[in-house]
Amino acid sequence: MNDQQHDFRKYRPDSQAWQDFHARHSSGKFFKERRYLLKEFPELVSCGENSKLLEVGCGNGSSVLPILRGCKNITVYACDCSSEALVRTKENIDRTIGTLDNFHSFCCDFSRSEFPNWVACHHCRDNFKLKQHSGGSEGMQVNYKCSLNEHCIGGVDFVTLIFTLSAVPKEWMPRAIKECFSVLKPGGLLLFRDYGLFDMTMLRFEPEKLIGFREYLRSDGTLSYFFCLDTVRRLFTDAGFIEDELENCCVKALNRRKGKNMYRVWVHGKFQKPF
Predict the structure, then answer these.
(1) Which of 17, 88, 109, 211 could pair with 60 as two cysteines, CB 3.0-4.6 Å apart?
(2) Which residues lie below 8 Å from residue 126, measured CB to CB, with a gap of 6+?
(3) This protein's superkingdom (predicted)?
(4) Which residues contact 125 (CB under 8 A, 6 or more apart)?
């Protein structure tokens, strides 16, 4: 390993890199709605009334939008480590759908800190909504201590991790997944999609960008990790999840502007919290 790689290995990102990223891409050109999510995760469409979903790492809202459009029974709570990303998400929702009562966002870095109590507690969640409607700051980290019980009650029915975990340092992934596990109801589902091993993006990285095993540092300071199925299986089962589905999705797409084929590899997974 050369000196430059050694220096990169010491690098541990904070939310500022993503804050800067979303500020640079505020024009909306980077935004591309992930319309395939409802087809890949049909449980979202067929869920019962008053279901609740936590989108972790919502970015500019590219995953939230199709869920809000196609899942009328779901209330979506979306978080990101970047307050700038939450602004972009709200702008995209307001522009394409309008003001919604079933969408709420908050700022949280799940790889470093716990989710607010209200994510897993009905009573605390109602207090959070009241604070938002009374003029509370959108995107602020808000935590409530439950006044009903020593332990909060409730939880969410779904957690979505869509191209989020790959941006977390590898050694922080186990605690981040356990944090997701803690806010799910028993029987709840975590829906996962992220970069797979030998995806086109991985093959385009220069060798000097490699900072660890399958872990790369982009020029803008953000991280990207590329998963194999065994790594994903181990991470989630070690956190207490039961594997429901886990497979590679391989897609060949044509870049019409450049006239080149693009070979994409993603990991698709569904993991359940035991009853």
Answers:
(1) 88
(2) none
(3) Eukaryota
(4) 118, 119, 154
* CA atoms of 243 and 195, how far apart (whole Å): 18
Domain shared by 122 and 46, yes or no: yes
Name the pTM for this structure: 0.85
Q: How many domains is the chain partitioned into structurally?
A: 2
Report how far residue 242's alpha carbon sits from residue 38's, in angstroms, rounded to the nearest whole number.
22
For 29-82, the pLDDT digits (tens) are 566 889 999 999 999 999 999 999 999 999 999 999 999 999 989 999 999 999
Give how far the C-alpha of residue 167 lies from the chain's centroid of Cα atoms, to the nearest Å. 9
Domain assignment present for residue 209? The answer is yes
Other residues' Cβ atoms within 10 Å of the Cβ of residue 67 = 24
Q: Which amino acid is at 70?
A: G
In a 13 Å sphere around the CA of 125, the CA atoms on its Cβ side amount to 21
For residue 27, tell me if it sits in a domain.
no
Same-domain check for residues 158 and 52? yes
**Pairing state between β 51-56 and 210-212:** unpaired
Residue-number span of the structural domain to which 123 is assigned? 35-162
